[in-house]
Amino acid sequence: MKKRHSIHLLLAAAALLLATAACTKDELADGDRLPEGQYPLEIARITLGVEGGEAQPWGAPATRVSEKEDGNSSKFDADDKFAVQIDDKGEVGTYTVQNDGSVEAETPLYWSDRDEAHTVTAWYPATGGTLDLSDQSQSLAYLLGGSGTGDYLTPVTLTFAHRLAKVRVTPTGDALGEVQSLQLYTYTQCTYEKGTVVQGSQEGWIEMKRCEYTENGVSFTCWEANVVPGYTITKLMANNDNKERDLSAAITPEAGKFYNITLDKDKGYTDDGQGNYTVTSAEGLKNIAKLVNEQWNLGINITLTADIDLKGIDWTPIGIDYNHQYTGTFDGGGHTITGLTVTTSDQYVGLFGYIGSGGTVKDVTLEEVKIESDNEMSAVGGVVGYSYGNIENCSVSGSVSGNSTAGGVVGAQLSGSITGCSSSATVKGVTYAGGIAGYTNGGGSLTGCYATGSISVENNTTNAAWAGGVVGSNGSSTLTACYATGSVTSSGSGTIYAGGVTGTNDFGTLTACYHANGTISCPGGTTGGVAGRNYKGLMPYGGIITACYWGDNGQTQGIGEDQVGTGGTTKVDGTDVDWIQAQSVMSNAIDVWNGSNPDKLCNWHYESTDATTPPTLVSIN
């Protein structure tokens, strides 16, 4: 079958006498019988019937014939052969289409009686066999069945119908420019007999044929294939890239029907029109960041439904600055984002740059992050650089580095909360560095968090600097049931404070926190097993440290510079105090904290396995 130019087609051929009779039609044999071989079957014309179209679920019904430039019709070509049989029995004749559209008998049939209204059946291809549908990139595969009525006095009009179904894929928008070829997953072969599919076989990818058509004066590029009816089609592939794409709705084609699929570029996300976005891929997450930052959709809710691989992706944080504060809810759904890499001079850096009050990020794991900023005012974190919001049940691994403030989870936390988060990332800062947060202030809270990575401050100024296993500098915030096990080191000029839990506790509260295993080192600075400094300043009150512990981290005192005198720290030396005792005291302190702060419940407790092993945190939700 070759393409012709027209919108619809009824194939017509002038009435053709297929053979010259040896006698006239009134010279009958005895009774109703006709002389054998004397009255040939005459075919007046052949047509390809226009059958009702069907489009599921992508658009309005369309007419299905087959292959023309406009995609709406087809015709027989010269030398196409089809078979014919009278009353579905007896001999089978073969007829060949001529250049002018007429037909010529190659193996003619003859009428044997003068009965009226015989049924004549026909089919294409003329013989049975196996039809290969796997590569239709150059021409479509066809299977046709036809029928008509006639007698020895009446020429027959044969009307053919398609016994395969047609699937067309029309790329739109950005997808059009990216599609070079399309593949459809269905049967790649079928056996057939008398123009009817007997059985489909060999599931696999069919290579579709590129086509063009015009609709309402608009030209479209598309891809088509004829397929075996009855096989439910659920997926396609583009450019042979081995990436299966699921259809929005499955198709179970019927013979003679047309199915048009509009192929949009996968944005990687969907939205419900109510500000709720579902992300399914790395491209989708990148597009969402663009949507937030460039279109000021700062309060949308984002939900991951799959693990995301950001390796090789040029990442722009969601919520890039003060004027673009993300205030929606990001729900990771327990999924993992791998390979987030940012090397920049931007100020606010992480998966998120800036989260405003009420914004929430929860239930996501970040693995193999590499986040760096050389901005001298930078706030860098694995999850978020600068936050007034709430960070819940997030985990980070990899490395985080900033030229000012750096934290494994959050660079700077101003009010809001960090709950149930952990980090094994290596964290490096110049002014502030912490395993969970580089800097906290404004009455925020950290609860049930822990860090196991190494923390370092390399101060290159004459100003003060702070490093802590959990928080670099804790200002006016509450740390409850938090611990660190990594080393905390510092170097450089200026006054430096380093502590196992926090470098400094400025008017803040530490309850049931500890540091173990790693070392605290700050040559020429001020160090403490729990806090480098507990700060009072000019206020009549200062930091409060209760039931906090440190293990063998090279320190002899829990607080390096205690301006307050609360002294709520104890060293675990394995003789007078062990980790079982520490766990008991810390858990009791958590309960007391709950009782005195009923509006700030702590759903975390410590569990110990033995006296020499530091306890771990367990959620009691």
Automatic annotation (TrEMBL):
Key words, A-Z: Signal
Signal among keywords: yes
Extent of Basic and acidic residues compositional bias: 65-76
Region of interest (Disordered), ranges: 54-76
Signal peptide (from-to): 1-24
Domain GLUG: 378-401, 402-427
Protein name: Fimbrillin family protein
